[in-house]
């Protein structure tokens, strides 16, 4: 049974961290062809950033996301491995992040996922825009 974890980067086992980053590169760079954006942007190193992931008994990371905290709380880098898709792992991670960070949370959602994020209480704010060549929408939760 896969388990959900979360921790700042400094408290993530190096082999698990490698698997998290490899999954993000696989999804965003290889699958979605986002090569004009730097996937490893340095934000993971910030003391206020927390990584969330679901890992199976073999150590494989099946899904991940990160939470950036500065003036706002922002969920990003939501990625699910091919073998983990359709099992609700990304939703589990979003729910865990929202529980860990009650209040207003922001996400820059790929536009085709607007309804999916709406299931978790996110509402669209403003017009669509392009980010890394993909249509996105800014979405916020209401204060908890």
Structure commentary:
This protein has 144 residues and is α+β, with helices and mostly antiparallel strands. The protein contains three helices and eight strands, in the order E-H-E-E-E-H-E-H-E-E-E. It has helices at 14-31, 89-100, 114-118; strands at 3-7, 50-55, 61-69, 73-80, 105-110, 123-124, 129-131, 134-140. Strands 1, 2, 3, 4, 5, 6, 7 and 8 form an eight-stranded mixed sheet that branches. The chain starts with a strand and ends with a strand. The model has no long low-confidence stretch (mean pLDDT 94).
Beta-strand fraction estimate: 25-35%
Distance between the termini: 30 Å
Radius of gyration: 14 Å
- Sheet with most strands: 8 strands, mixed
- The stretches of 5 or more residues where confidence is low (pLDDT under 50) are none
Give me the count of strands: 8
Put simply, the count of helices is 3
Residues in helices, as a percent range: 10-25%
What do the pLDDT scores average to?
Answer: 94
Multimerization status: single chain
What is the general shape?
globular
Indicate the structural class: alpha+beta
Order of helices and strands: EHEEEHEHEEE
What's this, in brief?
The protein has 144 residues and is of the alpha+beta class. Helices cover 24% and strands 32% of the residues.
Describe the protein's topology.
Blueprint: E1 3-7, H1 14-31, E2 50-55, E3 61-69, E4 73-80, H2 89-100, E5 105-110, H3 114-118, E6 123-124, E7 129-131, E8 134-140
Parallel strand pairs: 4-5
Antiparallel strand pairs: 1-2, 2-3, 3-4, 5-8, 6-8, 7-8
Keywords:
single chain, 144 residues, alpha+beta, eight-stranded mixed beta sheet, 3 helices, 32% strand
């Amino acid at each position: 049974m896969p388990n959900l974890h979360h921790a700042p980067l400094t408290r993530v086992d190096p082999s698990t961290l490698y698997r998290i980053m490899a999954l993000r590169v696989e999804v965003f760079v290889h699958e979605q062809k986002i090569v004009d954006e730097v996937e490893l942007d340095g934000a993971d190193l910030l003391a206020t950033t927390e990584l969330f992931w679901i890992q199976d008994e073999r150590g494989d990371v099946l899904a991940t996301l990160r939470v950036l905290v500065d003036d706002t709380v922002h969920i990003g880098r939501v990625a699910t491995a091919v073998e983990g898709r359709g099992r609700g792992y990304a939703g589990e991670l979003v729910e865990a992040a929202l529980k860990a960070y009650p209040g207003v949370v922001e996400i820059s959602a790929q536009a085709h996922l607007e309804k999916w994020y709406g299931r978790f209480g996110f509402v669209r704010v403003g017009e669509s825009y392009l980010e890394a060549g993909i249509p996105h929408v800014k979405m916020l939760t209401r204060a908890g």
